[in-house]
Amino acid sequence: MKQKDLKYLFVHQGWSDNAIEWHENIVKRYQKIGYNVEPFCAVPDPPGPRYDFYRLDKLWRKKDKKVKKIYNKLLEKTEDCDVLINFNGANIHPQWLRDFNTFNVYICFDDPESSHSLSEPVAKYFDFSFTGNAACIPLYQSWGIDRCDYIPLCNIGNEYDNNLTVEKILEGNRTNDIVFLGERQSIWRKERLKLLKNAFPQAIMRGKGWDDGFLPKEEKIPLYTNTKIGWNIHNSVGPVNLRTFTLPANGILEICDNKSRLGNIFRLDYEIIGFDTIEECINLTQYYLTHDKERREIAARGFERVKRDYSDEKQFEFLINTIWPYVCKKMKGELFTPIYHFNNSNKFIPKISIISTNKKLNSILNPRGYNIEIKKLMPKYDNFNQKNIENGIPYMENEEIGPVNFNEKKKRLEQSNFFEWPNMVALNWAVTKLIGSSKKIVEIGGGTGCFAYEAATDPKIKIICSDLDNEAIEWAKKHRSRPNIEYINHSVKSGEDSFDLVVAIDVIEHISDYPTFLEYCKNLAQKCILSTPNKNRNAESAVASPPKYYQHVREWTPGEFYWVLRTFYRNVKLYSMKNEYIPEIVPIKITDNLSPIIALAENPIYKEHT
Asked: Which terminus has fewer CB within 10 Å in the chain: N or C?
């Protein structure tokens, strides 16, 4: 059997007539390249809103007639289909899947903002899951999903001028400087867009929350094809949205946030421009407004890349090629997928995490549809010390083990577990956001090159990745090679080369003689990024002596780590991640219990020789 012999059911949402038409046009383009695809609008009486999973679950349990209607129609359709594709990640209850005679694919483009109410409760019950957010694979893996991948939201359809050519981009006249079409209501995006609007008052900015409101649909393409630069600002991590592909498809130079992940989709500084801070975005916009030839050339290459690799036809072919081995396995009865068991014990209730000691809250609010996650207040650090003294707990450390990490990764793989822990992948990706203007980087204990490979999507950066585990380095050379990465299995000598930045991700807790290690770091570069687990991440680790994980010689609280680093560097800033599986960083205080601790240390302190 071939891929085009199968029948595909494309399940989508229909919150408006335009949305229904948009999805049906996607299906027509799939059909045009020879696939047997049928659209199905999964709302009771189209057009209508989608349900989050909590709402859907509640209505299904109450045997709501409209939800039952969706189920019955889907059940009828799947009898004659081979593959079901839930394109919008909504309105299919996981209990229904066991009744469908199909290979079931889940796709969500709303991670991580809506993950808890959309993808997290249901994705693991599908045979394969895709997230449209390039930064959210570790998040999916943290839910126990190993069959997952990234798929771009490149269904730009008719949102570009079919008559546009490279020649027109290189030689044509565009009278508008900058455009941004998108809402400005979320706090994170609103503040950033305000800075951009103040810096470039001539920018055309339309959508929900803007004074001029939405741009009429018929004016969108004429505006885009007459504009030089387009900003792309996400609400959090990304990239994920349609603008990522629509802007270059219209010959616009795109300046987009989430630089490192963006560099895995387009070639940075060659097809697209990326940034991490709004200050960078302002400087880059100013530069390309005054360097017209460079702007046109990059925009033209971005246009060619989208036309070549990011049509929705290419998206569908990628989807089918990715799932095909598993489709064949399921047909043979060799694929295991968890089955959702419908009972009151697995009733989905949204969690609200609060800091409280009131155990009665849950019993009061649970019947109203909320599950309060009780989090005990961490005792102050001084109280930990006092408790240890009173109980006679001695301070103890583990022995330094050395480079054994790669062997553990191989063992995990043999046991069908993750080669790289998802939280460590997310951490490595998150650290790239602190690189700033550094161009020459040395990474110590880089292992299999997770950080180096991510950071090196920026062609202006050169990285030397050092690790004493030769197996890890050889694996990285084979699987994570880039022209601007040099992998070495020995230490870089101080004074051997000049670097802008030293990076050591979760290394220092493995080293017995950490003062010598920090001396070594500060002699390599003026700036250093170090990460380590937060000893105060939970009550157990806070008083563990020695650390429970045998490879950790010692662990620090943020306050301890800060003052240790301050004896070596004049300036130290601490960060962490609100969710250890989402590569976003936030500043923290020395009393926080978020883990890991990520420290940006600058301006080394050198001893005076007498």
From this structure: C
CATH class of 3-154+313-331: alpha beta
Q: Which strands, in side-by-side order, build the sheet including 176-181? A: 204-206, 176-181, 227-232, 253-256, 273-274
Q: Which amino acid is at 144?
A: G
How far is Cα 546 from Cα 399, in angstroms, rounded to an integer? 10
Buried residues in 53-63 as b, exposed as e (16+ CB within 10 A): bbbbbbbbeee
User: What b-and-e string marks burial along 337-372, b requiring 16 or more CB atoms within 10 Å of the CB?
Assistant: beeeeeeeeeebbeeeeeeeeeeebeeeeeeeeeeb
| Total-model pTM | 0.88
What is the CATH number assigned to the segment(s) 405-604? Answer: 3.40.50.150
Residue 556, beta-bridge partner list? 534
| Comma-separated ranges of CATH 3.40.50.150 domains in the chain | 405-604
Span 405-457, pLDDT tens digits? 788 888 888 887 888 899 999 999 999 999 999 999 999 999 999 999 999 99
Amino acid 387: pLDDT: 55
What is the C-alpha separation between 353 and 575, in angstroms, rounded? 21
Under CATH, which architecture does the 166-308 domain have? 3-Layer(aba) Sandwich (3.40)
With CA atoms as reference, report the closest residue to 248 among 293, 206, 297, 305.
Answer: 305
Closest CA to 536 of 494, 577, 590, 603: 590
Q: Is the pLDDT of residue 88 over 50?
A: yes
pLDDT at 84 over 90: yes
Task: Give the integer Cα–Cα distance in Å for 179 and 184.
Answer: 14
Which residue ranges does the chain devote to CATH 3.40.50.2000?
A: 3-154+313-331, 166-308
By the 10 Å C-beta count (0-12 exposed, 13-18 middle, 19+ buried), 590 is classed as middle
